[in-house]
Amino acid sequence: MPGENLSRDEARERAALLSVDGYEVSLDVRSAVGDTQGEGPRTFRSVTTLRFRCNEPGASSFADLVAPSVTAVSLNGRDLDPSEVFDGTRIALEDLAADNELVVDAQCAYSRTGEGLHRFVDPEDGEVYLYTQYEPADSRRVFANFEQPDLKAPFRFEVRAPEEWTVWSNGAGERADGVWRFAETKPISTYITCVVAGPYHYVTDSYERTLEDGTRLEIPLGALCRKGLAPHFDADDVFLITKQGLDFFHDHFDYPYPFGKYDQAFVPEYNLGAMENPGLVTFREEYIFRGKVTRASYEGRANTILHEMAHMWFGDLVTMEWWDDLWLKESFADFMGAFANVGATRFKDAWITFANRRKAWAYRADQLPSTHPVTADIRDLEDAKLNFDGITYAKGASALKQLVAYVGQDAFLEGARRYFKRHAYGNTRLGDLLSVLEETSGRDMAAWARSWLQTAGVNSLTPQVLLSAEGRIDELAVVQEAAESHPELRPHRVAVGLYRRTGEGSLERYARAEVDVDGPRTVVAELAGAEAPELVLVNDDDLTYCKTRFDDTSLATLREHLGSLTDPLARALCWSALWNMTRDALLPARDFIGLVLRFAGRESGIGVLQMLHAWAESALVHYVAPEWRETGGRLLGEGALRELREAAPGGEPQLAWARFFAAVASGEAELSLLRGLLDGSEKINGLEVDQELRWAFLSPLAAHGVADEAVLAAELARDDTASGKRHQVRCLAARPSAAVKAQAWAQVVESDALSNALVEATIAGFERSSQRELLAPYTEKYFAAIERVWAERSIQIGMDVVRGLFPSLMDSRDTLDATDAWLSAHEDAAPALRRLVLEARDDLSRALRGQACDAAAAR
Q: How does pLDDT run across 185-223, given as a tens digit for each residue?
């Protein structure tokens, strides 16, 4: 990996020297089918013609290319010796002219890691499918280029493919004389170019709109997936969300969609949720649901569709200059996903999901030792890869939500409109956006940016209530605190809500005030004289980004009456605050589990319920005292089964509780019930055990030694698909056997034979919380292997291995010491690798603090 890195300084130097007029890229992927010829990786031919200018004739630079071999290179008509100018990652360019033409004929490798041009063979029918994925810098695995976001150019692609295939790219395409040729793109960055090829199932539609000037806008729509998934593909709903999103963004952005057609490809073995390639957005195919899922899954898919669509403007039309300002696209897209979901679709509770799920991601990331400002310091491409994180996405989106409260929605959207028109097809930095927001809002954006975008860490807000002798509020204040490592106290626009029980027993808000919290203590004068509250909710309505804390009275109220809170957003915010307290060792994990068992069954929001299930399982695995794990697991299993049996037949809560029951089932009776549900000898009224649920039930059976290799093979025969294979691989690695664990370890760490999806599945099966003794020998092996893995494997696989196999289940001081010893002995290791280990160490240290808190509660 180090040889493939590119530094910010190198990129800036090249951008100052060069400008690009255009690319012509010709790919021949007919080699994707049939037997591999010869030794080494399977390759395809890539011919790139790159026209560019140099403002210092005679200067030198380089082009990027990661390929097994280069057949020919010519610069301005001069043939260059590939062995002299190509080192495996770069092509040296000497004595440049004012106007230049570079032609590179290379043999590039198909990928099995989801980076570059990924090749997938469908086990169901043997069909081959291709797609590209580049962010942040993997287009150089497919064609020669200048791999940095600020050297934009128009692209023309042509692709030779097997006769029976269809090929898609960013522009509209047609086939003639055996070659697919695509319309030239607008000026775009290399990382958002795209090619998808294969026998995909393809559905079409159209979007039409009359613009304000009276012209008619028509956007051809397409949606595609593997043939094997076609029976499950609800393209109508995809198109519905797409059209609603296009309406919403045209209404608010006042800039017509600029990239012609709008295809959306659902592709196999995808590393990300989705990618915003203009005209050809790619998604992980798990967004096509093979079984029954809850409304939360459809909401999540809609959010992703709208997130990627927002990128057509924030990211594709206007692009950050370098990855430091990645937030200029990702924070905005994350914000716009929820904003448009609420404003345009049937998912009116999307801000609740944002508060409960997305912010949880941000809060965790912002407390890691690797936390960084939203505008980050990205030294190189390895830094960039790791900064697609909860801060760049969810914290940045939360800051924008706070910004909307600060400047007003109208000023915010008018600023966006001016930003698009002023910088269309260009590249920007932080100041470019702040300047238009200052124009539209009249506010000092520099101060806001310093606090919210240029400092790291999360503040906590706690209410202080002083009551008068008459039982009314004498003074209510909000106390703001920050971690010692990140002491910034930010300005917050917050709503403070007062709640009390009604005669019917519900817990409802009876007073609310908005206030600007600034500094360590802010008095909320508007609430003086109000009747004494049973619950004070700071950050009611979720206007800001903070950790909410409770005073003693409020916490006591939640312990007894959390399920009585009638407002779903307020309830979600309280759950989120309680989970943060658990992670911060302020609330014993067994108390959090008790709250879930007592009140989760009354939760009306299915997305919140599923989040509670995930948190409760995490509390059991990581935060309860080890001596209480067995008891906690039994209580969760019994509670989940009780809620499963009591849930309305056929409803979404029943499905959610069924999946949670499978996740925590461990006792003999529970496992016996799962076996009975699989073979039909047991029934739960209304529960349909479809294929996806069958695999969910088989996972704990495999982990507890009840489902052996023969059972799993039989299930794969029943579901002989790509999805079924991933499930089977996960279950095989989950079996409680030393030999099984050794085989799984070897397949992931000692071999590169598995694809990215099967690496992910194997790691998921390997790490089982019920198998700590079996996993104990791998702590030493992990630290002995990770530097080699990082050096030899692609960055994606390196990240998967280093994160996924860290011995987090060996939650003891010994593991913490072993981690510290590795960090001490490897101070010169790749910074990105050290960051991953430091993050894992922090999670482990937090778990140990949580366990100590939980143990103390039992004494």
A: 999 999 999 999 999 999 999 999 998 888 999 999 999
The percent of residues above 90 in pLDDT, for the chain, comes to: 94
Token pair belonging to 818: 């072993």
Catalytic residue among 308, 382, 617, 670: 308
Report d(CA 499, CA 501) in Å as an integer.
7
**CB 815 within 8 Å of CB 847:** no
Tokens 């006591």 belong to which residue? Answer: 556
pTM (global) more than 0.90 = yes
Do 380 and 7 contact (CB within 8 A), yes or no? yes
Interstrand relation of 280-284 and 427-428 (parallel, antiparallel or unpaired): unpaired
Q: Return d(Cα 414, Cα 412) in angstroms, integer.
A: 6
| Cβ atoms of residues 80 and 101 within 8 Å | no
Report the SS3 class of residue 613. Answer: helix
Q: Is the peptide bond before 57 cis (omega within 30 degrees of 0)?
A: no
The residue-averaged pLDDT of 710-717 equals: 97
Angle (nearest 5°) at CA 260 between 259 and 261: 110
Enter the tokens of residue 341.
């979901």
Distance, CA of 359 to CA of 547 (rounded, Å): 10
The C-alpha atoms of residue 50 and residue 101 are separated, in whole angstroms, by 6
**Other Cβ atoms within 10 Å of 164 Cβ, number:** 9
CA distance 565 to 104: 65
Burial of 98 (0-12, 13-18, 19+ CB in 10 A): exposed
Residues 6 or more apart whose CB falls under 8 angstroms from that of 341 comprise: 299, 302, 303, 306, 347, 350
Cβ neighbors of 231 (< 8 A, separation 6 or more) are: none
Residue 308 is a catalytic residue: yes
